[in-house]
Structures are given as C-alpha cells and as structure tokens.
Write a structure and sequence with these properties.
3 domains; binds acetoacetyl-coenzyme A; 387 residues; Butyryl-CoA Dehydrogenase, subunit A, domain 2; Butyryl-Coa Dehydrogenase, subunit A, domain 1; 53% helix; alpha+beta; Butyryl-CoA Dehydrogenase, subunit A, domain 3; single chain; 4-stranded mixed β-sheet; 15% strand; 10 helices
Amino acid sequence: MNFNLTEEQQMIQAAARDFAQERILPVAAEHDQSGEFPLENIQAMGELGLMGIEVPEAYGGAGLDTIGYVLAMIEICAADAAHGTIMSVNNSLFCNGILKHGSEAQKDKYVRAVASGAEIGAYALTEPQSGSDASSMKSRAIKSDDGSHYVINSRKSWITSGPHARYLVLFAMTDPDAGANGVSAFIIDSEAEGFSRGKIEPKLGIRASATCEIELDDYKCPVDCLLGAEGEGFKIAMGVLDAGRIGIAAQAVGIAQAAYEASLAYARERKAFGREIGSFQMIQAKIADMKCRLEAARMLTLKAAWVKQRAQATGQRFTVDGSMAKLVASEAAMWISHQAVQIHGGMGYSKEMPVERYFRDAKITEIYEGTSEIQRMVIGRLETGLR
Ligand code: CAA
C-alpha cells in the first residue's frame, strides 16, 4: 500500500486549491446569497482542465486519474460546494458516460465541448414521479418510421445545471413493457426545437448551482445521438452514477474539511470562562470525533477512486465502493457541519461566517445521486446477494 500522491495528482490538487482560494472563496458567500450561477469561474475551471479531469487530452481533458479528480473536487468543495456540484456533473455524469459508451463522433463533439468548459453538461434521469425508483420513468422515445430519429416526450425534474446546460444525457423508455431493460440514453441539444426549461428550484443549499425542470415536447433526436444501444440506458445510468457517487463523496469530504478547519480555528481563538474554548474537554471530544470521521470518509473516498481506476483494466463494477464512500462521507459531512455550527454557537447560526452554509450544503450530499437509504439498499443487496 502506498499513500503517496503522484506528481500529477499533487499538481492537480495544487491547481484546484489555488483556484479555489483565489477565485472561489472570495465570491462563495455572495453567490450563495444571490443564487447566481458562477459561469465565469466554471469557464476558467474548464481552461484549467477541471471540467474533464479524467477525459483524455485527445478530447480536450486533463487526462488524469480518478484520485486526481477526487483530490481536486475536495479542494473546490472546501471553498464552495456549489461550484463542486457543477464540476461533478460535467466530469462524472456527462463526460464519463459518453467516454464509456459513446461513439468516436459523440466523444469528439460533446465531451470536448464540456471538458474544455466551453459548454455546460447535465444528466437527466429524475422525473416528478420517479426519483429513487428511477426505472419507473414516464419519458418516451419512439423511433420514426424512416429510422432517422427518435421523437422524445419527457418531463425531467431536479436537473442540476439545467438552466445553463447546452447538452444533456437524458434517459427515456424506448420499450415501456421491458421495464429497466426498456430504457435508452440520448444526447440532447438544448438549442434544438422541442426543448424547453421549466421551474427553477429554490434550494436550501448549493444555491449557486442552478437546478430546473426540463421538458421535451416532440423533440426530434437524431439516431446518432442515441448513447450506447437501445435498452442499455438503465445500466448506463447506474454505471454513471457509480462514478458520480465517488464525486459526491469527494464533495462531502470537501465540505466536512472546511467545517472542521473553521471549527479548529474558532476553538483555538474563542475564549469563554477565561480560556480558549478548545481547552474544554467537551469541545476537544467534538474536535476528535470530527477529525476521525473526516479522515475515515477521506480514506473510503480515495479507496473508491482507486478501485474505480483499477476497474478500467478489469472491467469490474465498483458499485459497492462508490456507494460506501458516498454514504459514509455524506453522513460525515452532515454530522461534522452540525458540530461546527454548535462549536461556533451564535456565530455558527450567523451568515457572517461560512459554517451555516457548510451545514446547508452538506444536506444535499445525503440526497442526490441516490439517498443514503438507496446507498444502504445497493450495498445490502450486493453484499447479501438477496433482494
Ligand atoms: N451498474 C450496472 N448495471 C446495474 C447497476 C450498476 N450500478 N445497477 C443495476 N444494474 C442493472 C441490474 O443488474 C439489472 O440488470 P438485469 O436486468 O440484467 O439483471 C438492471 O440494471 C436493473 O437493476 P435493478 O433491478 O437493481 O433495478 P431497480 O429498479 O431495483 O433499481 C436502484 C435499483 C438501486 C434503486 C436504482 O433505481 C437507483 O440507484 N436509484 C437511485 C437513483 C438515483 O441515484 N438518482 C439520482 C438522480 S441523478 C442526480 O441526482 C444528479 C444530480 O442532480 C447531481
């Protein structure tokens, strides 16, 4: 076992940290308040290679590994989780799926555009009536008689980056009688006829990452925008989420790290009853538990990244590792940010300090890309072999 980072991993970590400290941290609170999408920063992150970290250089990415991606996500999310949400959807849910299942032409056109930061990508699985039960979607795609395109009618909800996405990977039923095996994946262009955006979601946290409903009304999707084969869509969606969940685990570690560091600084500095509050055993116990949970979450997330990396050669699934990392890291982020608010007392409840933002942002990591209940179900099913 080797815990040392490679030179390339250290480089992307340092580049992400510098960008996060210089460009994101100074504007994070402002974006959280206004809910304004940080488009300029996202484009600049694209230029730095942060929007396609694992995308080969041939398609405009940084050509690095999953550990590099996790390290960069942690740094970005420690400054602002909303920037991290946009980054993780571009990297894990959009580029990763097309790289794995797309044709050469699809990779060249869509991955290049999103990995470079020139365009924003999104992933459209959830529908108003189907969140956790993803295969019960109502979206329909019917192939035209001449076989040149699919006509898609669909209503998707909770689409991260939806208001700004140029391209989306969208899932719809081509064979509704076949259940999960009747789902297909499509690459959608938001500038084409039949595409429209609906309600923008007002959210508790990650407020600068815009989220909206998407509607396709007799949208004509050319056959060459089918991703993978007909009927493979659900497995593509789940495989992509296996990778996405590692990104969300990294996001949770970033939020937890920021909450921990803020608490440590406050505990050393704030005085009560004539001494630093960090000298009280009750605060020290909190700091110790926060540190243990933070490092356990970090280790499980890096391990999942390593397993995913190895799976590139073996083709094995890394579903359990991704789910374990997300489950443990998201619950750690929620717990640590909760303790951080408590350590800060009244200041933890105030918008003058960032800890209340960490607390609000942490919550989403237990919900999106599969709730904690779904992660437990995935792990439990695969470990027991029973359902
Ligand atoms: N990789 C490959 N194949 C997989 C897979 C995986 N990870 N998971 C399931 N499959 C396959 C199964 O093997 C099965 O194949 P066969 O029919 O050949 O046996 C098929 O897919 C159907 O699987 P299940 O029977 O397990 O399907 P299910 O209907 O019981 O659902 C579930 C399983 C785990 C609950 C799944 O629906 C799920 O993960 N739900 C949560 C959805 C989710 O995470 N949504 C997040 C939305 S995206 C988002 O949040 C993005 C954002 O905003 C940032």
